[in-house]
Amino acid sequence: MSTPVSIRPRGNPLSLGRLAQDIAREARAAQSEGIVADPLMPVGDSDAAERGVGRALVGPVGSLGTVLLSGPTAGGGPADLELHLARWGALAVDTATILDVLDSSEIDGRGGGGFPLRRKVDAARAAGHPLVIVNASESEPASRKDATLCTLRPHLVLDGAALVAKALGTSDVVVHMHRGSGMAGPLRAAIEQRKAAGFAAADSLSPDQSHTVVDPAWRLSEGPDRYVSGESSAVASSVEGGEARPYFTTSPLAVHGPSGRPTVVSNVETLAHLAVAVRLGGDVWRAFGSDDAPGTRLVTLTGAVAEPGLVVEASGPVTLGDLLQAGGLDHPPAAVLVGGFGGTWVDGADAWSTPFSRPGLSDVGAGPGCGMVGVLPPGACGLAETARIVAYLAGESAGQCGSCVSGLPRLAAALGDLARGRMRRRGVRKTASIADEIFGSGACGHPDAVVRLVRSALDVFAGDVEAHLDGGPCAGAELAPVFMVPGPRRIDSSGGGWK
Amino acid sequence: MSATIRIDPTRCRGHAICAVFFSSGIELDQWGYGKIIDVELQDERALKRARRAANACPNGALVVEEALA
Amino acid sequence: MAGILVVTVVAGRIAGAHLLPLLHDRMLPWILGRSLGLASYLALTGMIVTGLWLRHPWRGRFRRPAASTILWSHVALAACTLTLLAGHLTALALDRYAGVGWIGVAVPWTSHYRPTPVALGVLALYGMVLVAGTAALAGSIGRRIWFPVHSVAVAVFCATAAHGILAGSDASGLRWLYVATCSMVVVLQGTRWVAGTLQRNGGVQV
Ligand code: SF4
Ligand code: SF4
């Protein structure tokens, strides 16, 4: 689908845009004819694509398998409102339909948690005066998918947020991002375009008001650029003027946010999918994925791939191997880091045929997380890579919970010793016991993620562990890092720098 | 009866007194921070002990919640 | 209980060793009282040390003893201290040699024998009962009362040490014991304070 989509004047708001029509038609045809196209055929003008942005993968639903990122790539710049409306059509749905689509599509959270959006919306609908927070705080240092989406398709994100706001009967929406992330510009421009087009003005309401999606009162907010500041309670707290640190709650944010208001915090990709699903119908949207993984999914490829930072949109029953092929690999690497730096190592050979779906990944102990897939090439030292990542993550503790503050630096030191070949056999047991001790002890999932990473490293690189215990570090430990991990910082529990 | 006990790890400073009052429900990790063994409180006795522990915690880090029947 | 007995006997030997020649009927309660006093002082020291170490910022660097071991020793030593204290009081109340008497062990400055040192002991006794009592009832009276009261324990230790040194008739023979125990507590409390202050002003040390 490399043909540029023509920009048409805004037509009847009730009709689908051209791309949406094409997708719906192709999907129906594919369903009736049982077409299974060659999965993962790259589409789009890849030469024009700037590094890592906007290339898409095609799944088995005809040749239109790409959804969010289909159409002009980074070279074409962000989709402005006119283009957006021409391709997708204007939003015109009532609340019942939005809820139906949330139900039938089973859109799951794409920030890492994977929590069904419908459940958050239901919880928040039960109480009064909800707040919607669009979480654009992409914390994983190697992940680019949220930035790509907000830069290239800001209107899909904003549409999704407007839909959630409508479903909740609120007009309070805050778009929150890390300071200096570069997302504020495109999002602000998109909001300006919508305002100029009269999206929020009362006189633009059609007679059938129940079907009109009025733009909410957008607010942009920026918080500190810290790893744990992207966690939903930290985001909510930051938006409400507090510290961007996770806090302890006994009830979900969607029931009781920091200010007592029901607060729905949703990742930008999740919202963009909602904007598409509402237009196509929940079932059609679902069909872009597989039975286990509804809809398409944005994935950032990193590590030893052709273009680290490349964002692809996976559709159909995709395996990790398919994704790695999109990254230029033709055979299994040594290992794959799935789900982010706070993710899980999977052995390369096992990974190749593992479906990229929640159940498929959980069979190998992993999860999609933020959608990052990192490649460890043969010869590189997985333990050294893990040590660098754990050191970074330990320094990113919010410094609030005892065992996170005491335990993570201990784990980081242990991994460092192991990578440098300075650990004895007893140390490995000790490391495992520290990991057990920390697991489940924090106010947020940060320590748990580190523990999973460490455990998977000790498991996947068990042979390397033996070698390091016996004969010092391997040759790979001396090589340049495969993953670009920011330098660790010192845990700061004094409470400064969190606003 | 349905009651739960939770610990706010951002408040817990490892004073450990909770483990004295509710030794069957709270253990201490290797740094002395409280760890809840089972969030659900099984019976009235456990609830009573959990309340005592929550009352005694110098940082008010324990949250005992009882569902309204 | 067995532990308490052993401690008593050992302390009795230390305290009573050079008093043995004086051992006759009239002296028995005095010697018993002295040794029980010394034993309870040792238990008190253990209690203070475990209590301070439990809350010491440096404890995280050591895996053993485990926090729960320290905690339960702290509680057990408190029970020990109170039991030994009860023995110490009874023996001295019955003693005719120094003649402290029931009133002397209960009301400060009523003892004819070294009134002020004995009074320090009596005050420490009340402090100890207060600290232990509030801690035992912490679950009912709440954190706002028991926790501040718990810091009185350090004052209790100081008063007890002074009492032991000044009231005992054989303090000179036990000089090193007092020096060792007191400096242990001072060092622990001092480093705890310094490390705690550093930690509040800068990041957490790891
Ligand atoms: S677990 Fe760690 S990162 Fe999470 S809130 Fe506690 S201290 Fe912060
Ligand atoms: S008493 Fe409170 S501060 Fe101490 S360990 Fe228990 S919960 Fe933590």
Which term fits the overall shape of chain A? globular
Oligomer: heterotrimer
Structural category of chain A is: alpha/beta
- Binned, the helix content of chain C reads over 70%
Helical proportion of chain A, percent range: 25-40%
Average pLDDT level of chain A? 82
Distance between the termini of chain A: 44 Å
The SS-based structural class of chain C is: mainly alpha
Q: Which hetero ligands occur in this complex? A: iron/sulfur cluster
In short:
The complex is a heterotrimer of chains A (about 500), B (about 70) and C (about 210). Chain B is α+β, with helices and mostly antiparallel strands and about 70 residues long. Chain B has helices at about 15-20, 45-55; strands spanning about 5, 25-30, 35, 40, 60-65.
Give a written overview of the molecule.
The complex is a heterotrimer of chains A (499), B (69) and C (206). Chain A contains 18 helices and 9 strands. With 499 residues, chain A is α/β, with parallel strands linked by helices. Chain A folds into 3 domains: 88-284, Rossmann fold, CATH 3.40.50; 297-376, Ubiquitin-like (UB roll) (Roll), CATH 3.10.20.600; 382-478, NADH-ubiquinone oxidoreductase 51kDa subunit, iron-sulphur binding domain (de novo design (two linked rop proteins)), CATH 1.20.1440. In chain A, helix 3 crosses helix 6 (154-168), helix 6 (154-168) crosses helix 9 (268-280) and helix 15 (402-419) packs parallel to helix 17. Chain B is of the alpha+beta class. The longest helix of chain B has 13 residues, at 44-56. Chain C has one domain. With 206 residues, chain C is mainly alpha-helical. The longest helix of chain C has 28 residues, at 67-94. Chain C contains 9 helices and no strands. Chains in contact: A-B, A-C, B-C. The B-C interface holds B 14-17, 19-21, 27-32, 49, 51-53, 55-60 and C 54-55, 59-60, 63, 66-68, 70-71, 75, 135, 138-143, 146-147. Bound molecules: iron/sulfur cluster (SF4) (2 copies). One iron/sulfur cluster is lined by residues 7, 12-18, 33-34, 57, 59, 61-62 of chain B. The site of one iron/sulfur cluster has 15 residues of chain A, from helix 15 and helix 17.
